[in-house]
């Protein structure tokens, strides 16, 4: 089959990790008779430098016309590049928010998996890790505080800033359905996370989630307050299967979840909407401090490409093969610097990509 992928290398280590993911996709294509064609799209700081804005209408249109989007990372050192002297809606990150909204990608899936080979990198105690954990954070991505009205003005002589957190029942129901669907393919547990003891938006979230749960009697639904959830992720991560939560809580909890695995360089993510078109990106950022040094870990991006094969192209077998290739290369002892440990073989970004592509 032929697939047309919009690729957004972006900033920092973005171009390096995207190059390796393409290598792996091409290896999959050659072996299984698919053809992947790539259209490069500018977003983030590189787009600002070239066009003055972080995402042009044409770039968004190219992404819309593709079968799927593969993204490296956007942004740079806050305070060190002139990108951050610009108005907030013209900075690199605004491109990311615009493409999420523009493609209506309301469901963000961020897996937190403890890879067996990397157990020593996990910062949690051994009795907490047990035989490992594997959960996903399902984060609402196009609503809430990120997209509510905001302003800064003077009220009674004081500078006053307002951000608004809005959700309607449809926005809650559609993300809840995605969470239940994903849970069905896993261990059939959804933990909905909110702040219903304080926020109206959370009380509605809780109510609508319960209503949607009635459509999925085979999946267990529990609720948890977000502060408790932050604690439970480090206290007993094995209790979770699918964590369902709103945009801002999901932003924070997904960083925490990735950190407890000890290997943020390994974690993929997918942003999905109602159609097959998705946006796939590593969970980590653009790491400007190591950009261009061939030190980045391309595995999160390669695993994001595997998620693309699975969720957008329905190529489950090919996705399995990519994930198995990553595990095999780790088993053989190859490591990039971020996951290096004594007695392993240190490799750069491009070599890691070669090894995984060869394994396919
Ligand atoms: C993320 C990032 C973004 C977000 C930033 C860069 C706007 O932190 O993808 O989690 O907050 O969504
Ligand atoms: Mg974040």
What keyword list fits this structure?
10-stranded mixed sheet, 14 strands, 360 residues, Isopropylmalate Dehydrogenase, alpha/beta, two-stranded antiparallel ribbon, binds magnesium ion
Give a written overview of the molecule.
The chain has 12 helices and 14 strands. The chain has 360 residues and is α/β, with parallel strands linked by helices. It folds into 2 domains: 1-106 and 267-360, Isopropylmalate Dehydrogenase (3-Layer(aba) Sandwich); 123-260, Isopropylmalate Dehydrogenase (3-Layer(aba) Sandwich). The two termini are 18 Å apart. The model has no long low-confidence stretch (mean pLDDT 95).
Structural class: alpha/beta
The total domain count is 2
User: Compounds present?
Assistant: 3-isopropylmalic acid, magnesium ion
Highest-level CATH class of the largest domain: Alpha Beta
Helical run tally: 12
Sheet bearing the most strands, described? 10 strands, mixed
Q: How much of the residues is beta strand, in percent?
A: 15-25%
The tally of beta strands, per DSSP, is 14
- CATH topology of the largest domain: the name is Isopropylmalate Dehydrogenase
């Amino acid at each position: 089959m032929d697939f047309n992928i919009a690729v957004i290398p972006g900033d920092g280590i973005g171009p390096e990790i995207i190059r390796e993911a393409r290598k792996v996709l091409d290896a999959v294509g050659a072996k299984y008779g698919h053809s992947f064609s790539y259209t490069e799209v500018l977003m983030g700081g590189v787009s600002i430098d070239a066009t003055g804005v972080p995402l042009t209408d044409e770039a968004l249109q190219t992404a819309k016309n593709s079968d799927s989007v593969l993204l490296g990372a956007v942004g740079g050192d806050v305070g060190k590049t002139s990108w951050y002297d610009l108005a907030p809606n013209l900075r690199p990150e605004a491109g990311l928010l615009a493409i999420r909204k523009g493609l209506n990608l309301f469901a963000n899936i961020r897996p937190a998996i403890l890879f067996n080979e990397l157990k020593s990198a996990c910062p949690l105690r051994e009795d907490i890790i047990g035989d490992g954990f594997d959960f996903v954070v399902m984060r609402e991505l196009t609503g809430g505080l990120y997209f509510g009205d905001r302003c800064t003005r003077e009220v009674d002589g004081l500078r006053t800033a307002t951000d608004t957190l809005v959700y309607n029942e449809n926005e809650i129901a559609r993300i809840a359905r995605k969470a239940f669907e994903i849970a069905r393919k896993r261990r059939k547990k959804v933990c909905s996370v909110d702040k219903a003891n304080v926020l109206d938006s959370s009380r509605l979230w809780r109510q609508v989630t319960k209503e949607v749960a009635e459509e999925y009697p085979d999946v267990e639904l529990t609720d948890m307050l977000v502060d408790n959830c932050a604690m439970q992720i480090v206290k007993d991560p094995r209790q979770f299967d699918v964590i369902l939560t709103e945009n801002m809580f999901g932003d924070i909890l997904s960083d925490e979840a990735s950190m407890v695995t000890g290997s943020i360089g390994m974690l993929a993510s997918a942003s999905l909407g109602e159609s097959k078109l998705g946006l796939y990106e590593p969970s980590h950022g653009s790491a400007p401090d190591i950009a261009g040094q061939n030190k980045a870990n391309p595995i999160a991006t390669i695993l994001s490409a595997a998620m693309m094969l699975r969720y957008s192209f329905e190529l489950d077998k090919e996705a399995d093969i990519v994930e198995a290739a990553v595990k095999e290369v780790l088993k053989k002892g190859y490591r990039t610097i971020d996951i290096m440990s004594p007695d392993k073989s240190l490799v750069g970004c491009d070599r890691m990509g070669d090894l995984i592509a060869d394994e396919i």
